[in-house]
Queue: 2 jobs
Job 1
Amino acid sequence: MITDIEVPEPLSPLPGTNIDTDQGLLQWISSVDHKQLGIMYLLMALFYLLVGGAMALLMRIQLMVPENHFLGAIAYNQLFTMHGTTMIFFVLTPAILGFSVYLTPLMIGANEMAFPRLNAFGLWISFFGGIVLYFSYLAGGAPDTGWFNYAPLNQAQFSKTPGVDYYCIGLLLTGIGTVATAANLIVTVITLRAEGMKYKYLPVFVWMVFINSFLILAAFPSLNAALVMLLIDRQLDGHFFNVNTGGSALLWQHLFWLFGHPEVYIVILPPFGILSEVIQVYSRKPIFGYPFVVGSGIAISLLAFGVWIHHMFATGMGNTVNSFFAASSMLIGIPTGVKIFNWLGTMYGGSIRFTTSMLFATAFLVEFTIGGLSGVSFAIVPIDWQLTDTYYVVAHLHYVFLGGSLFGLFAGLFYWFPKMTGRMIDERLGKWFFWLFVLGFNLTFFVQHILGAIGMPRRVHTYPDLPGFEPLNMISSIGALLMGLSMMPFLYLMYTAFKGGKRAPDNPWDGYTLEWLATSPPQLKSFSNIPPIMSFRPLHDLNHPEIGDHKTTEDDKYGTKDDDVVSGRD
Amino acid sequence: MMTWLVVGTETIFFLALIMGFIYFAYYPGFDPKSVGLLEPVQTGAFTALLLASSLTYWRVEVNFKQGKQKPLRIWLIITLALGATFLAGQLMEYKHLFDQQLVISQGTFATGFFTLTGFHGLHVLIGLICLLVVLCLAFLGDFENSDSSLIQAVGIYWHFVDVVWIIVFALVYILPQFINLHGHVSTP
């Protein structure tokens, strides 16, 4: 059955791939191997996740009781700005890029990315962007203007510390790295697919990465342009966003959200892909409605650019503009709903294994739906006017970023952990981590919906002792501490798995896609040959020839016709 | 293909800058004093040189396809010279404007003008560096009977820089001459 297809290889050896692995750390720093770079992206995301999470805990301690003096206004402003910026640009984005560069070549049966050195460049420039951002603490004060850094607050006369300059330079560097990696991923998918890997056979995750990379290429330049303009304003006395001298504060919002809105889809599309892989493997069923899952991803990416003004309903753009963007924002609910139903359809009737990974995937469905519904409520302009800049927004964005993106990433981490490290995790401890995290997450953010509805503004370092504020804030803070606590079993889990976890077989979950064909962990050269690809579950076809997807009729699949039983459709 | 993707994302970057320029310069109206300092005729001449460099580069690509090494090198040198002259012209213009006290902090028009043309100049510089690399490789004999896509990739970029300049030139130098100048002078 297995007819070998030669995997095309680069004609000349790549630098770095023939270095002895006993070089230790130097091997990692100088690496151009997509698997090592992917792991480093993930480690970078984990590092910044712990830093950003610690900041969130400090903020929640400050907000535990009314009129608290734990941090004070200045430190609090810096903390919420750095927390938001870190989580978006140095946790979620590197994490999705980490999975993308690790898995995309493996899943399409290639041995490397199209441009290995560009890949390394992307990682390191992103990493140093983060260092530059954090250096602002030493240079006189971190940015204190919120992660979206609205004008005119970001102007030199209102933000006197150099924090915003470091924000600009740090994010510019990261932006360049992200764009480079995205272009690299697109070229990889187009040019390096194994023979027989047609577009209709790409794994759903690769499809989402592919779509997502175009989204990155189109969205990040707006941010970079805005950052350049802001730097000119601050360093060269320019007038782009300076309202006093003829500039426009709205221009910043337009440019920022023209990037910022697609960015929230940039960090959710790959988790959608992860979820599609995880749910189908753990349900032992092919994904329900493959063309619809992919198509709705494309629809989301196109709609992403038509909705940015829903962040600006309260700026007085006029009723026509508001109505148009309210309608287009609600449209996003349709392809997202299609995806949710596809996943439910995949799980329906499947024989589900509730591993830690699958638990996170299931929790994703619940939390992301809550986050999506509160998002639709914002698309209704009067409700947005009422709730904008309250904790309701905070609750919504955390439900989609954490309950959506991060849960998806955790699902992916536990799913691919055996592949990446060659070790199995302790499922019992994993479930402890899952329940603690989900409980803490919902405690923290669910009550913030109510807090927002009864009028608590966001971005305030303290609040008066109004009825209801104290108990709800207390519950929220306790939830946050619980989430912080859940990081202990998580880190312990990672540590013990690395040190003494059970050896993982090549394909522990009976996975469907090509990465499970490689050894665990994969060698520097992942494949020497791959099976013929005749469906979007090539490895499943190989391991279960009797029920392979490529077989056209029931007779074929179950051998009920006499002749032509196992020959397939070669 | 990589070049096409890079050009695509650069297009959006320039679109954002151009949008910024239009937003300020056209909506409140131009500052007549600043616009009056620009010299469309002189810049127009340099624009013609830049456009000519696209034509000469097209000759480079044709000669590469035909495998003719000597004309390839000559056309490359001409392209480089034309591009460098354009950049020198831009520097001269900047110096002229600085002498007339038009600097980036002068007002919204100046901010938009220097950002837009400055970033274009930066892209010309990057293009010149790429051309220089291609030239060195050409003299080292890298393009004899080769299927390298380098010349084509640099070409896409160089033509892109040209197209951007046509739009910038029209928006910044030509169009303001035809509309009523009544904008406010912003206080620096």
Job 2
Amino acid sequence: MAVIQVERKPLTFMERIYLPNIVAGMKTTLKHLVAPALTLQYPEQRPAIPPGYRGVPTLVMDPNGREKCVSCQLCEFVCPPKAIRITPGEIPADAPDAHVEKAPKEFEINMLRCIYCGLCQEVCPEEAIWLQNTYSVSGYTRGELVNNKQKLYEMGGTLPDAHFKWDKKKAAAEHGNAH
Amino acid sequence: MDFFLNLPLWLQAALKGIAVIIVLFPIAGICSMAERKVAAWIQDRPGPDRVIIPWLAWIPGIGLIRRLGLFNLMADGGKLLFKQDPVPGNVNKFYFVLAPIIAMTPAFSTVAFVPFGAYIDSAGATIPLILANVDIGILGIFAIASISVYSLILAGWASNSKYPFIGAIRASAQLISYELSMTLAVIPVFLWINVPGAPGTLGLARVVEFQSQPGFWGGAWFVFVMPVSAVIFLIALFAETNRQPFDMPESEADLVGGFHTEYGSFKWSLFFVAEYANMAVGSAVFILLFLGGWNPLPWVPLSLLADWLHITHLPWLVGTLATVIFLAKVIFSLFVFMWVRWTVPRFRYDQVMRLGWQKLLPLAIANLLVYVIAIACLQT
């Protein structure tokens, strides 16, 4: 490997007395003093969230307004910090979506524990849990930061979804050719 | 005016003293806010601008004051006054509490020797506005200002903790190192103004008077006549007031908080009000010595400006004008202190010592010798 000798130049007199360099630096800072601020005025202005951002985990409904979660508890098991707690429940037999058999009675995500890893979204067979772009999580008490089922659905809303898996399931069950 | 002059002398002195403190204390307080704003502006951000008293928010035009962060100042003050003030165990409580008080004392005492304006009386003579127009002037300022380091030493020692102690030692070493150069840099000015045959004085008012004479060399500010002295004095002033790049006693990068590590709430803020008051007085001295005091421009003394504005016969107006000019210069100088702080990185401690002893001190001595010889040749 070739060795390149870099000549280190001795400092000139002006550099050694240092004051001109300070003045040059002050000139630079003066330019910034009069330059407009580059900051985002946060609560009023919100940053643009890139697609694929992993924000707060939420529960979503299908386009028919039914909850997708079947309380399989995979997300609860896979969650590394154990932030998710699901209480599984039966669906009443007379409910219109009774064929789903199961739905969560209670679904809690503790945002004090959540590490936004996104494993819950990865693992969900029903695509019911999604990390969405809400990034500002704050509260005055610890209790406020535990999102219950109602709040999770409020934050999640409905995602466009063309599968209608349970419709197909229902149709199959009615026509007797369950796959 | 007559009413004021008919009051007993002690009451006049007390009122004048209170008036000066009333001006100086808010300047020192607002500096802490200004520091944050200047820091923010230099770093391309708006700085503190959110605090507002809720029921004031609807007053139109209040937004400007809010954006300037003036309510932040109140919030800071309120917080520092009312937050819990812990005194650590194992500290020497008496000296621990005494230290911030001692910090304030010299800061507000030195101002007695600082003339902050002048008016022209009916005989055409310029009378300085000053609390104590005594001949020891600059000597008194140096003597009393040096006491401020006792507060740092006391704070560092009484805290009974390592980092404050190191900060205190650094403060005392730094003060001694730079006090020498500072004093030597000032001597040529006083050699020059104390012409043979005239009564000698170390008063700052005389220095400004000397810079307001007619003629090219008479009206020149001393920064043009003695630029090296001015630079040495300014550098030493930065070091003495513990400002960046010389803030060794508190340097939070290596000493946590230096001498004030163990302090909190109001005691802590007293150190900082004192630091800013020291800065204000120090820059006032610099302005009086080298930047023409209350004269608006070089070669344009106050009396000439008063002539142009036809207000020579109104002494109170001239006095106010002089004070305003002087205060404007002080405020600009305080801004320069902040500007430098957010430009220049902090020196290492050995660099501070080397600069003080190996560079500034020989330079100050050489500067003094040159001016001694030059003044001796010119004035005989």
